[in-house]
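Justification of resources, computational component.

The compute hours requested in this renewal are based largely on the per-chain cost of generating structure records like the one below. Each record pairs the submitted sequence with a full structure-token output. That output is archived, and it is also reused by downstream analysis tasks.
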Amino acid sequence: MTSISQNTNVEMKAFPIRLQENGQITVPQPVQDNLNLTEGDMLTLLQVGNLVLLTPKQPQVPQLADKITAIMEAEGITLTDLLDGIETEREAIWQEQQNA
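The structure output for this chain reads:
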């Protein structure tokens, strides 16, 4: 591993990686730990000219669902309350559009 820094707040580290059979690579353990990656996580490989970047691609839906659930629990809101609130908001938006 090589660490590179040029007076920025971003630390750059270089890890040697060997291309294995069928184009497979192994993400070094320190990178997995730092990015909280686990087996089965999706990554995105970007090619920019001769530069290759590998970035974590975290699905947004499960994270958003967890956040909504946490907020609902913290506020004591049930799914029925939430759905009723959505219907009320839809009606308010429709009324606003009709009066505009």
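The first strand starts at residue 2 and ends at 4. The mean pLDDT is 84.
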